[in-house]
User: Fold this.
Amino acid sequence: SKATVSVLNCTPLRSSRRPPRFNMPLQTALTKALGIKYPIVQGGMHWVGFAEMASAVSNAGGLGIITALTMPGPEGLRKEIRKCKTMTDKPFGVNVTLLPIGPGKKVDFAGIVKVIIEEGIKVVETAGRNPEKVIKSLKAAGIYVIHKCVAVRHALTAQRLGADMVSVDGFECAGHPGEEDVGNWILLAKAGKKLTIPFIASGGCGTGSQLAAAMAMGASGINCGTRFMATKEAPVHDNVKQALVNADERQTTLVLRSLKNTERVLKTKTAVKVREIEAVQPGDIGAIYPLVKGDRYRKVFQETGDVEDCVFSCGQVIGLIEDIPSCAELCKRIADEAEERLRSLQSHIVAKL
Assistant:
């Protein structure tokens, strides 16, 4: 029932009955552009973004993402895309991160883009440095591009280059938050003022109240990475999932700062050791590479489950992770809570004379 208004004091008189829930979908620029049920994106994650993860999120109503750099070259990516097509008939995308993956290693980005186009992928999440060439190729093929960036000036550049949407990635995020240490409370508010294309919030996201807050600042949805690692379908060892549940928001740390390639990771014994080495040998990738290389945490994710024996990306959202639901349960929970929060905010608006 609608609240009535007292003419005497201009404050709403609360009804004794709770307003009915209509279970209406949250429709945003993101859901409309991609044809998804919920404004929730599963961001690219190394050694996590396989077909199993992407299809589970897409089937749950969000946008699942396959991580290109996790696959063994362009043809490995093609194989994973085709596998995902057998697991979902819902939209899913591919992440292309333009960052170095290790000393002496080169990535065939042209080959990756070629496979994405040939396989009919409709949406790509780009991230990292100098995206102009990749964005240009993807847009020429009619692909929807969401560029992830850690500064509003980078978002404005992506907008100028033709990105359809940007994912504004705050300092709370897992992985690479850049070198300027600005959180989403500022980035989102500024993005809402400066951008003319839609944007979503990324970094530290995992709850419906955060989705509602992001929407209040103008965002069209949220991007979750770490939160999706702690789901039943995530293709990582159960020990890794439980470690995320057990941790709190203080248990991440930053490595690779001396290389100006900062990464937020879970504060494991190995991560602490990396920081100690960086303190005495700053900028020496050779000294720390055996501890941070991707194959080390691939083995932990897929085989041993020995969380302390590796370094892996992890966001401060771990402070909000309390269980290991299915992707369907998580997406519905986030959307329902966001709807409830957005509706409840109406009670703070009073009538004016």
Summary: Residues 1-22 have pLDDT under 50 and may be disordered. The longest strand covers residues 92-98. The chain has 14 helices and twelve strands.
